[in-house]
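Please, why this fold?
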Amino acid sequence: MPPVPPPPVVQAAPDPAEPQPVDWRSIPPDEIMVMRLADGHEVLIRLAARMVPRHIENIRRLIAARWWDGLSIYRVQENWVAQWGDRTEKRPLPPGTAARVAPEFELATPPAVTPMVRPDAYSTWSGVTADGWPVAGDGRAAWLVHCYGSVGVARDDAPDSGNGAELFTPIGRGGARRLDRNYAVVGRVMEGMQYLSALPRSDASDGVYADVGRDKGIAWVRLASDLPAADRPRLEYRTADNPRYAAMIAKRERPAPPTVAVGAGVCDLPVGVRRAP
């Protein structure tokens, strides 16, 4: 008898939600904030330079002046935020930096987005800009949203009292969206969020460590563009202005059975970043 031919190989259909090489773009090194912790771990933050230019200008000046070198993460509140800066509030701001920055709680121009299908409790629409920023709006204004890993500017009561010297990131999975339009979002953690979200929580109501010895030390903060070329982290973001990103959103909002379709919010979408190959 002649040999039985093997069954034909059936190629799986490509996933329409998977990104293609053309979907990745480099993050400029002067938009990557590198925070080296005292234990050697690094947190990489992408700065929203195009969205909040006044705050980013001040933050770049603070970085150039080595403002955060030797300071600490001193506030870690359960299901809320981790905050870093000068807990004593006595370190003078370096020359050339602004003590107060005009609010940038809303975006000057509502951006084009790949939208979420459903509205959420905090806005009438939300989506992701072509260059990867989660935003929301209400028909009159648009704003960057506070997701897990977003980086915001702490401030006092006055809307212009934030200058970027005190920064925070939400470490909980719920509730931070109520900060939208009340605090300026200036960036998002691209790598190293685990080193912030896993810090011990403070027992104090505001999350500030009562014992200074519990603070998490910051060795230094630099822009990637200020580091030697060989030491610079090279990151790429996933663009959102293409059918594959729209398919990814649809997949998140309407998962295939037997998963129950419960919808998704803009903060449920993956960050969309990778090391440059």
User: Anything to note?
Assistant: The first strand starts at residue 24 and ends at 26.
